[in-house]
Amino acid sequence: MHEVALCNALVGLINDQQRERGFRQVRRVIVEVGVLGHVDPRALDFAFDVEARNSAAEGAVLEIHEIEGRAWCMDCSQLVTLGRRGDACPLCGGFGLIVEQGEELRLKELEVI
Amino acid sequence: MCGVCGCGEGDTRLETGGSGSKPAARDVVVPIDQVHDHGGTLRDDPAGRAHLVSVEQDILSKNNALAAHNRKHFNSHRVLALNLVSSPGAGKTSLLVQSLNRLLPATTAAVIEGDQETTADADRIRATGAPAIQVNTGRGCHLDAEMIDQAFHRLHFQDGVLFIENVGNLVCPAGFDLGEAHKVVIASVTEGEDKPLKYPNMFAAASLMLVSKVDLLPHLDFDVEQLVDNARRVNPNLAVIHVSATTGEGIDRWLQWVRAARDMASVSA
Hints:
A: three-stranded antiparallel beta sheet; 27% helix; B: eight-stranded mixed beta sheet; 20% strand
């Protein structure tokens, strides 16, 4: 839902990169999105096409790499994989979990000409 | 505009209840034909072929930098900032009005009100005597750090508690740090017990959950313990206080929590 604002920020970062590096056009935008974060990849993809209009990234392909969720289980004292917030620890079934990975929202690379 | 919910980057307006309003500055997208000519040579690849450049930047880095600026600003002004979030209609404004009536004048307090449209909420707040600024986000579905920076500069507020009433929405405000000391999520007993599981990011980001409208419990088939269990599944450290703006139940406990948070903030500042 807030993916429009996120894509607006993303296009802002791309514009900064263009000023810094002087490329003409962006063909591919590679972003990393954690599965435990607040971003819906489909909405991000839709919003990107709209927000990229009249920028160097117009028409570029948005490539979304998902990052899996990981949490520290306070009962098992180890890192476990977490598919979704609210899921139990796959080892002990408890909910004493501190998320360590899976909330990323990062512009990783640009393919440019 | 977003195809999922129709939200977008509308014109943001600040309304201070006196002087005129001014649109907030937004990020400017530079059209490709306004970028200066680099003579066809690329620093990364002189041959001008398609190539990958590594960026590795958080997409919210600008918002996060402004939030860090706000946090510093709040600390230097001895202000405890609380970001109140909930779905629409959970009773944020009624709860705030009750809270302000008990806090003032012993504790100074101010409010930044976020809503898509209207100044109705800020008007209700000002009736308590607390200064309030309304930020209308237009089509935007959340407050961001830049809006708070501008609103805080207009408030000229120090030595007190700043309540930021976010746009009624349990999804979008979760991702936008405003520089607050804590997010406080309000869940009313007229909503479902599964709200924390449906919107886990907000409950995970909050320090405190206020369970509101508890005066209605005798008339409802609502399992409060289930709500609290669900919330602690996504946030094992979440504090919980039951409140009613109608009967006043729990309001003093909530205000004790606010004072304790303020004491903690002044110790760490």
